[in-house]
Amino acid sequence: MTELALDLLVVDDEPALREVLALRLSGWGCRVRTAADAKEADAALRQAGADLVLSDVVMPGISGIDLLRVLRARDAQQRVVLMTAHANVDAAVEAMKAGAVDFLTKPIDYDALRALLERVSAERRQRDNDRALDAQLGETPSALVGESRAIRDVRAQVLRVASSDASALLLGESGTGKEVTARMIHEASARRARPFVALNAAALPDGLVEAELFGHEAGAFTGAVKARAGCFELANGGTLLLDELAEMPVALQPKLLRVLEDGRVRRLGAAKEVDFDVRVIAATNRGVAEAVSSGRLRSDLLYRLNVFEIVLPTLREREDDIPLLVRYFLKQVNARHGASVEGIREEALALLRAWHWPGNVRELRNVVERAVVMAGEGWIEVTHLPPHIQRPTGDRDRPIELPAGATLADAERVLVLETLERAGHNKAEAARRLGLDVKTIRNKLRAWGLG
């Protein structure tokens, strides 16, 4: 049996019960002190704290519930379990409202007490781990959170790239942090005081990419009611991120290459070109060799942008960073939603470490946000995690079943949505599994009112 190694204070006016309880708890590996009443207990805790106070309810002078209120008023984190031989529903409700961890009846059920102490011990271990993680977060020099070798290498590459003004190409699966990395390069560079502009080629219809990129004059096309600067002008002096480069319309790529080579851009419908000074960073989740060989990406454009290449690791390749990332997102989400979730249970964290994370860090962030909203306060339990993480199965390999009498449109919808679910809602991964463009997935979801 595992030793619990907890510091406990037993408070009871019956000497025999104090002695029996202290002997049992000491045998479990706990360090036990005793007190005969609330006054002795208060003095003992002022001298040295305790992981848990086990207090009788009915005592001469100050009752156990009043002691609980005093201790919680002084330290909201103090954990107290109340014990009584006169249990009733009203007393239990009052104790829990006052902040008791639990309410035990005498004679004590030692199996239940052992289970309770094991939970407290696990929480103490997790708090110790969380303090260590908080210290690591305080020392993390960037938004690329993690201490794995892979992520430290990326941070070192970012600093090298930022020291120059050359173009860079960021490679990695969707959700690995390519935009975060591009912003880091910008913030570490001499251009940090100037704009950072990002254009996601996969998020726009092909017909709008050119106008967004280069800008347009009023009347240049239907709907262009007024002039608008493009990304190159907006990012002048700063950094432009061309995200999802392999989704850039093929017909537009020669013009983009010329603009990059000349350092001048002409708005759609304009008569003259304007100069710009922009550092360009490109990113893609596609294999660039495959994109070039399939004709989706021009090799000369790739060579122009790929002066420096940084490969972002998947979350599967940096599993040891998951506890630190969970802590980082937990603090962010608590602040955003006004929640007070303290931490995550060991068994829930173990499930997160075991998951294959097709959506990478973005998926983990969303899972933590869902869990915090579900929990609201206290601890993230296994039940607060999404069902597919709670009960991982071989669903990825199971054939997708269609409802009886399904039409072609029904079959398409089921196929796309089921594949998206199995891919952890990673649109790029779902598109890869289905052999489609990510734009097709986005368009279908929008058509179904789910985009």
Distance between the termini: 52 Å
Give the low-confidence spans: none
E-strand count? 16
What does the overall shape look like? Answer: elongated
Radius of gyration from the CA trace?
Answer: 30 Å
Q: In what order do the strands lie side by side in the largest sheet?
A: 2-1-3-4-5
In terms of structural class, how would the helical and strand content be classed?
alpha/beta
Number of helices: 19
Averaging pLDDT over every residue, what do you get? 88
Please give the largest β-sheet.
5 strands, parallel
Q: Percent of residues in beta strands?
A: 5-15%
Percent helix: 40-55%
How would you explain this protein's 3D organization?
- The chain has 451 residues and is an alpha/beta fold.
- The protein has 19 helices and 16 strands.
- The strands form 5 sheets. A 5-stranded parallel β-sheet has the order 2-1-3-4-5, with helices on both faces. Strands 7-10-13-6-14 form a 5-stranded parallel β-sheet. A two-stranded antiparallel ribbon has the order 8-9.
- Helix 13 crosses helix 15 (360-375), helix 17 crosses helix 18 and helix 18 (427-434) crosses helix 19.
